[in-house]
Amino acid sequence: MTVVAPSPPSRPIRLAIIILLGTVVIGFAHWGRSVWVPLKNRLVGKKTTAEVMASLRRRRPELATMLPPQGRDLTLLVLKRERLVELWADEVRFAVYPMTAFSGTLGPKRREGDGQIPEGFYRPVFLNPNSAYHLSIKLDYPNADDRENGRREQRSSLGGNIFIHGKAVSIGCIAIGDPGIEAVFYAVGRVGMDHTRVIIAPYDMRGGRRTDLERGRVPWVIARYDRLAAALAAFRERKRVAPPEEENRIRR
């Protein structure tokens, strides 16, 4: 009996297989970071926040002069429609960072899995030097206000694990790329989480501009937007310390 060996795949099929495998690997490297980065950290060891701060001082000495010093109160303004994050200390705007990814729509986060970036007033609660997305800062969503509104509307699963982080992936988080999160991480680490607040607005409400976004919203959302508009008004001056060429470099 003669055994006929199977013929090898044709060249177009081999090329298609290689392209498919390459796409899977690239996709896993990008979207599967929450799986493989923790495994890598276990193998090579985790970094401490102090180690990351020291590394940033060595690699990016310009951060020492272009970011707020210790003893200042830090505010991060997150503008969802404009997809920008502004870094302020008192009445001075130090830097602007573009959001590198976005999920959901304009409007507050209501439940787990809705992909929404929250809107409201938040505080950082954890600096993560071993994030799957380079570095990250965890916010206190859902805070007491979110939980109270959820209770009134009988929403029990509000979601959580909302971070400001690097890279260009977002499922309800605020992604600002690696250079951006390095600067923000360093700034928050230097002034302290107790001296940092994060204001997330659906759009830039400064100057008294209001849109029809509020139309049809429930009362607690309208009240929150009123508070956001009042809070953003304090940052209307848009002063900055960084020279224009430095700020333009950051935004690119």
Task: Provide a concise account of the structure shown.
The protein has 252 residues and is α/β, with parallel strands linked by helices. It is 38% helix and 17% strand.
Q: How is this structure best described in words?
A:
By secondary structure, this protein is of the alpha/beta class. The chain folds into two domains: 12-44; 49-251, Beta Barrel (L,D-transpeptidase catalytic domain-like). It is 38% helix and 17% strand. The chain contains eight helices and ten strands. It has helices at 11-31, 33-44, 49-59, 63-66, 144-152, 177-191, 219-233, 244-251, and strands at 74-79, 84-89, 92-98, 120-122, 124-128, 136-139, 163-165, 174-175, 196-201, 239-240. The chain has a six-stranded mixed β-sheet, with helices on both faces. It has a four-stranded mixed β-sheet with strand order 5-6-7-8. The longest helix is centred in the N-terminal third of the chain and has 21 residues, at 11-31. The protein starts with 10 loop residues before the first helix and ends with a helix. Residues 242-252 have low confidence and may be disordered.
Topology of this protein?
Layout: H1 11-31, H2 33-44, H3 49-59, H4 63-66, E1 74-79, E2 84-89, E3 92-98, E4 120-122, E5 124-128, E6 136-139, H5 144-152, E7 163-165, E8 174-175, H6 177-191, E9 196-201, H7 219-233, E10 239-240, H8 244-251
Parallel strand pairs: 1-9, 3-10, 7-8
Antiparallel strand pairs: 1-2, 2-3, 4-9, 5-6, 6-7
List keywords for this structure.
four-stranded mixed sheet; 8 helices; globular; 252 residues; L,D-transpeptidase catalytic domain-like
